[in-house]
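Lecture 7 notes: from sequence to structure.

We start with a single chain of 194 residues. Read the sequence below before looking at the structure.
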Amino acid sequence: MPTIRATAQHAAVRCDADERQRLEQLCRTITRPALANERVQINSAGQVVLKLKTARRDGTTHIAMSPLEFMQRLAALVPRPRLYLIRFHGVLAPNAKLRALVVANGPEQATGKSELTATESGCTHSRPARISWARLHKRVFQLDIEHWPNCGGQLKIIAAILESAVIERILTHLGLQARAPPRVPARGDFEQAA
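Now the structure, written as tokens:
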């Protein structure tokens, strides 16, 4: 029997597909809006009145604000794109000094090729922030451009030619086409033919 697994506020709640009562309760929990409709009203002055769940220390039970201010406060609740929704504090925080001692490092540690340890570099980050372009080529195209194919020796860039006239002369000398092919519209020809 299939098991439906949904995360309700990162609680990892699970229920079987035939447990309709629990499934409905789980769906209601994960689709709950940020504010209950019963707590939001518009007063006669055109202001949005928000009823608080519990009264504040000073006795405030309602907050009145303009519709624009209410929308600003609602927008502040929406997380930015590509933002982690789980926050870590203390030793697990991203820049904690002792994080390297608690959290296992990524693939470098498994292969035994750790570049620097936390004590050698003086910081807690032992991996580079980005993968080098050579490793990306190897991962995507299976081209090892860091090592010579015949002997396995290390390749390195000794010069970068940026002038187009020099590039054209070299390509012409090697018998290769010096100019890039013209750009073709992605769908223009197909749409005209149809």
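The radius of gyration is 30 Å. Keep this in mind for problem set 3.
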